[in-house]
Write a structure and sequence with these properties.
The chain is mainly alpha-helical. Helix content is 61%, strand content 0%. Helix 4 runs antiparallel to helix 5. The longest helix has 37 residues.
């Protein structure tokens, strides 16, 4: 018994450095407050590309084939989705569609050429992985191809360039960046926020 009592008294003499109770909770609060203070959705980037006043009237003397992105962007707002702009975006969409069809043809040829049996399992796995990646890319392009065809149909119907939800102009800058856009930037952000909050 006396040995046990001696050990207990020695344990009581050992001092454990105590951590300030506020330290851990302060760190947790700081990280939480930092997360809370950051906005849920990043604000839209301010004017990605600016209008050049020198190019504002170039569209009057040029055909749709000759117009550049900068010239279309510099057109006055009153000319939004006039015949020249619609023709310009139609050409852009048709060129994009043709590129994708050419890529699909190249993929078919590429897959046909690579049918040689490779004895090494590692090499075979690498080839199969490359094929899978290429096919995934083509699948994404196939979905985009459908959107391109819908956009061309919208130009024919006179609906191109206007938001599906609000009916407001989508904007030339957004259409130059994404010619298949059907929603304005604000409507797209609202949709993404809903999807984030409620899932698909």
């Amino acid at each position: 018994m006396p040995a046990r009592a001696g050990r207990a008294s020695r344990l009581s003499q050992i001092t454990v450095p105590s951590m300030a109770p506020a330290v851990a909770s302060t760190a947790a609060k700081a990280s939480f407050l930092q997360e809370m203070s950051s906005p849920m959705i990043a604000p839209p980037p301010s004017a990605v590309s600016k209008k050049d006043p020198k190019l504002a009237n170039n569209w009057k003397t040029k055909s749709a084939e000759e117009l550049t992105d900068a010239e279309v962007l510099s057109m006055p707002d009153s000319e939004y989705m006039n015949e020249k702009q619609q023709a310009f975006f139609r050409l852009k969409l048709v060129a994009l569609k043709q590129d994708m069809l050419n890529n699909a043809g190249e993929t078919t040829e590429h897959l046909r050429e690579d049918t040689v049996v490779v004895p090494d399992p590692a090499d075979r796995a690498t080839i199969e992985e490359e094929h899978a990646l290429e096919l995934r890319t083509r699948d994404r392009e196939r979905k985009l191809l459908k959107k391109i065809e819908q956009s061309i149909a919208r130009i024919d119907a006179g609906d191109y360039g206007y938001c599906d939800e609000t009916g407001e102009p989508i904007g030339v800058g957004r259409l130059l960046a994404r010619p298949t856009a059907t929603l304005s930037l604000e409507a797209q952000q609202r949709r993404e926020l809903k999807q984030k909050m409620f899932g698909d």
